Structures are given as structure tokens and as C-alpha cells.
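S.,

Sequence below, as promised.
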Amino acid sequence: MTNHSTQLIINALFSAAANHSAPEILHSDHGSEYASADYSTICQSLNVRQSMSQPGCPWENGYQESFYSQFKIDLGDSDRFNSLGELVYAIYKTVHLYNHSRIHSKLKMPPVLYSRQYQLEHGECV
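The prediction came back faster than expected:
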């Protein structure tokens, strides 16, 4: 049976696959939701190969660790919100800013702009 966390990431994967092409490889840590049979089945159905860092080796997932570190700074103190709805809205705004406005050091542009540019040059989704 799927737990709440697993269902959230399954929903996120379906949403991402509906709006973009499914990735060939999906890298994560060893969280129980990513290691679940339900999540693995969904990945297989989308022809997505799962990749996991070694347990206890967060540096193998450096890009994601860096993102979360900066995301927490950008979001600010989560205790400042008066309701869960306010927190969810702030998370949405922060992710939107990150994807649409923030210049990424590796890409030299926001991810959405990079994706559009790639689509124009290659005729396919990133």
C-alpha cells in the first residue's frame, strides 16, 4: 500500500511527465518513498531508470543537496507562516522564481529559458 509521501512523489512524477517528456534516468537518495515498489513500478511503466546514491553518501547527490540548501535559504524560516496554506504558497512562489527568474551558475540562465532554447534548437523537450 502506498504511503502519503510515496503518493506525493508519484503524483509529482506523473505531473512532470505530463508537462515534459519523462526523463531517461531519475536520481534520488534512498528515501523509503523512492525505494518503494509502487514508485519503482511507476518508473518502469514510464521507461525511467532509477538511480540512487549510496546510503550515507549525500555528496553523490551534490546538485540536489545544493538546491535544497539554497532553497531553504530562499524560503526563509518555515515557522513564520501562520498556516499550512501560507507555507505551500511560499514554496510554490520560491520554486517558480527558481525555475523562471533565477540565473543558474551552470546554465547561465533560468531553467525554463534553457528548456525553451533547447526545444527550439533540437525540437524536443528537456
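The beta strands are 25-28, 49-52.

Coffee later?
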